[in-house]
Amino acid sequence: MVLNNVRIALTGEQVSLDVQHGKIAKVLPGTLHEKAERIDFDEAIIFPGLINSHDHLDFNLFPALGDSTYSNYTEWGRAIHKNHKEQISNVLKVPIALREEWGIYKNLLCGVTTVVNHGKKVKIQTDLLTIYEDCQSIHSVQFERKWRFALNHPLKKKLPVAIHSGEGTDTSAFKEIDQLSRWNLLKRPVVAIHGVAMTESQVNAFKALVWCPESNYFLLGKTAPVKRLKKHIPILFGTDSTLTSDWNIWNHIRLARKTRFMTDHELYHSLNTNPANTWKLNSGRIAPGNSADLVIARPKPAPTDKDAFFGIGPQDILMVLHQGNISLFDETIYPQLKNINPDEYSKVYIDGA
Questions:
Q1: What is the DSSP string of 308-351?
Q2: 237 and 271 in contact (C-beta within 8 Å)?
Q3: Are 9 and 309 within 8 A, CB to CB?
């Protein structure tokens, strides 16, 4: 299958992609005119499927819960369980597999092809996107009673650890980071999530940092000092769940761009190459041999190719491929899809699309 006549996001390079056996076989310059099994596009951009490096898939039926700005995540946790007890109870009555499924759809509709799930292993199987769980998930120092044992489990010492760390603006959030570092006796690769209280002197103890700006601003009124930390550590992008943020990752990305903590290229790579390198994925790049995790979108008119990419919303997505298979497509593309069984798909309407 050839994805014909698309522009690579940010660079504007016009190409056609030959996808075979779930991978990118060739990146061909320009437009393909010869007869082939192809899907033709017009004024469309292509980019690697987004990698969401932090979500709790089973928490995406919650509305955003919080009544003020908090000093740290433990203060927020106590407050919502006190003030929103019934609301939390009602959501948790929904079967966990159904809540996880909605978390998958939330990501897919935005063009996410890999999501790192933080929490217990998911109950359901899906080929719509990759649910990455090849790491040890520890919630946090405060919320996981046996975190020291989990961190120093001898049978898991080569497995990366994903853990909330420094999610606060007070002294306790700062000290928590040092506590975690001191107790990493096996020197395991630790990916810190949030890191709002993290300083440059602390950052070298970690393999990478997952930046979740919208969740941070909602809870804490402040986000991680990524402008300084990016000099020392790879920055990955995450959304967290709808418990603390909007469902649409593109709103998170635009918020991050407004901070100017990262250049456009740095922010772009926090969604693809950085997490692909950190989590050791064969995706995140448009290159022969890479997994065909790809998104094609028709952007709104914009002054530059960068503005076109960062202006995208779910309603602009024309197609999402996961490992070469079409997980989502816009109905304007449907007449070109020869081997699609419409019974395997359902219609979803987003802002008129």
A1: HHHT--GGGEEEEEETTEEEEE-TTTGGG-TT--GGG-----ST
A2: yes
A3: yes
pLDDT for position 35: 66
Bridge partners of residue 329, in order along the sequence: 319
* 98, containing H or E segment: helix 96-108
216, two tokens = 């941070």
- Determine which helix (DSSP H) or strand (DSSP E) holds 7, and give its type and residue range: strand 2-8
What is the C-alpha separation between 245 and 143, in angstroms, rounded? 20
pLDDT (tens digit per residue) in 263-306? 999 999 999 999 999 999 999 999 999 999 999 999 999 999 99
Distances 184 to 152, 279, 323 between C-alpha atoms, Å: 7, 19, 36
What is d(CA 271, CA 288) in angstroms, rounded to the nearest whole number? 19
Phi then psi for residue 261, to 5 deg, are: -75, -25
Q: How many CB atoms lie within 10 A of CB 154?
A: 6
Place of tokens 């740095």: 266
Mean predicted lDDT score pLDDT of the chain? 96
**Do residues 141 and 168 lie in contact, with contact meaning Cβ atoms separated by under 8 Å?**
no
Instruction: Return the DSSP state at 129.
Output: S
Name the helix (H) or strand (E) containing 215: helix 213-220
pLDDT tens for 20-65 read 999 999 999 987 767 678 999 999 999 999 999 999 999 999 999 9
Q: Do residues 4 and 31 lie in contact, with contact meaning Cβ atoms separated by under 8 Å?
A: yes
Reported pTM: 0.97
Q: What is the DSSP letter of 20?
A: E
